[in-house]
Predict the structure.
Amino acid sequence: MRIEKLYPMTSARLMVINVATTPQSAARTLSNPGIGLAVVSETSGNAAGVLSKSDLIRHLTDIEQNASIETLMSRNIIFCSPADELQAAWQVMVEHRIQNMPVLGADAKPLGVLDIRDALKVLFE
């Protein structure tokens, strides 16, 4: 099964924040139930990185409290595309020990976020 068939699930989990967003605003976004990852976008709308709840927690334990989203986000985005097979995406998630993976379209446009629990549910059905 291709990721594109899961669009209703992946699009519902998509939260996009701008690179200029404050950590406090990002924390409000990530506090929504079912949201574990925010895609950080440039002004063009392309994905520049991802910000997880873990990234914010590390920030809170850091002495330097004036960090920006740009310094907190992960720039090395592990992602899948709508045309990718679900099982292959799930294997990448397991291999990299990630629970949420952005679904990016052409030009790194954010389309959704694949949650590992959703992937497992569909794979078992």
Notes: The domain at 3-124 is CATH 3.10.580.10 (CBS-domain). The CA atoms of residues 4 and 82 lie 4 Å apart.
